[in-house]
């Protein structure tokens, strides 16, 4: 359901951007470092939107990569503990109980499962 709302938001944003861009077709002067150019405003709007989307996508991928790496490190440390319980040094009393819990499928907590044999 979350993905559907996200897709609807993206489509609405794309539609609003397209309408706004089509309304603004006059050429504008864009100043670069050592030169300037007259570019239609529609290209500036669409280009800026596209560039902003690429930057957001890159930041999202970097965040996801970092989270996946952290999960793998934590799963490795959990497997090394041998009993499927988090070591005492992981427990932080400053966190609320809901923040301290890491919910994993029961199969991944079993060190004798197939996932840990590879």
From TrEMBL:
A Pfam family that the UniProt record links to this protein: LapA_dom
Transmembrane regions: 37-62
Ranges where the record places region Disordered: 79-118
Chain intervals with Polar residues compositional bias: 109-118
Keyword tags: Membrane, Transmembrane, Transmembrane helix
InterPro entries referenced in this protein's UniProt entry, alphabetically: LapA_dom
Tree of life domain: Bacteria
GO cellular component: plasma membrane
UniProt keyword Transmembrane present: yes
Comp. bias intervals (Basic and acidic residues): 88-104
Record protein name field: Lipopolysaccharide assembly protein A
Organism of provenance: Paenibacillus naphthalenovorans
């Amino acid at each position: 359901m979350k993905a559907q709302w996200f897709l609807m938001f993206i489509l609405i944003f794309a539609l609003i951007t397209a309408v706004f861009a089509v309304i603004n077709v006059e050429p504008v002067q864009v100043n670069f470092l050592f030169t300037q150019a007259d570019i239609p405003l529609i290209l500036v709007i669409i280009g800026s939107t596209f560039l902003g989307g690429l930057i957001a996508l890159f930041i999202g991928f970097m965040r996801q990569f970092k989270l996946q790496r952290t999960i793998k490190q934590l799963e490795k440390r959990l497997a090394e503990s041998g009993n499927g319980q988090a070591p005492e040094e992981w427990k932080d009393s400053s966190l609320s109980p809901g923040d301290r819990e890491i919910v994993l499928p029961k199969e991944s907590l079993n060190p004798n499962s197939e996932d840990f044999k590879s």
